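Lab notebook, bench 4. The sequencing result for the construct came back, and we need a structural model before the next group meeting so we can plan mutations. Quick request posted to the team channel:

Model the 3D structure of this chain.
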Amino acid sequence: MKAIKATRQVTKAMELVAASKMRRAVQNAVKLRRYAFTAWRILEKLADVHPDVHPYLKEQEPRKILAVIVTPDRGLCGNLNAQLLRTTTQYVNGLKDLKTFASVDFIVVGKKGQQFLPRMKQNVIAAFPSPGSYPTLKDVLPIARMATESFLAGTYDHVVLIYTDFISAIAQEATVKVLLPFSKTGLKEMLGSLLPRRYKRESDKELSTEDVHEFIFEPSQDEILKTILPQLTELQVYQAILEAGASEHSARMVAMRNASDSASDIIDELTIVYNQTRQANITAELSELTAAKAALE
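Done. Here's the predicted structure in token form:
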């Protein structure tokens, strides 16, 4: 009972720490989510009106794929890691069914992915530590630029993001989304991944009712696209890492709360058993004393 009480103190402390981190992480993810929604909405219209004006917008057959996977550094967060790694395995197996598929390489963020992918015999070309509980865009730039430079160099024709999308404090969803190229279908998938589920129908309706026939670029089309497309790509990676951080802290808070509740239940059960045993011992001792007194009389 003492050991379980000590364990409950630890899990309760971890729950409070995770709850504190979760509030700020969720706030950061939700703040950026609306901006990302507006940016991707504009980019989707741009792809409809001016296709093939930039390498990021060209549709290509999936042959060589670069996957950026965002995982936690630690466990004790329920089935979050298992769900993310199971989705990664399903994605890799699904790629083998594509006729044009040739190979897939990984950029890993977080220690859990670094431990898991070698066991899957997957090729990891780069590994980054987790950017922390409250990452900034500056922390994400090396990851995003490595992916985009590999795409522009022709080393890979597709770049995808694998991360855990934050839905609520008790629900997190492993997601695989296309980062590059910004094809029409990929844009809609990424737009859906950036929004909470309650916004998806509203956003689809809003996009379908608007009709844009032409865009006017100032100062020039090339200059604007060279500036905005890399920034929006970096934004997508940053948003994915924010979503993954919010999901990790939320899952850990719920897991530690469940552990504390389970410890309390076990203590209650053991207390009942302890009291029953103690009462039985007292009753036995009283019976022995009564029998001894009767024998002496």
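The two ends are 43 Å apart (CA to CA).
Will bring this to the meeting.
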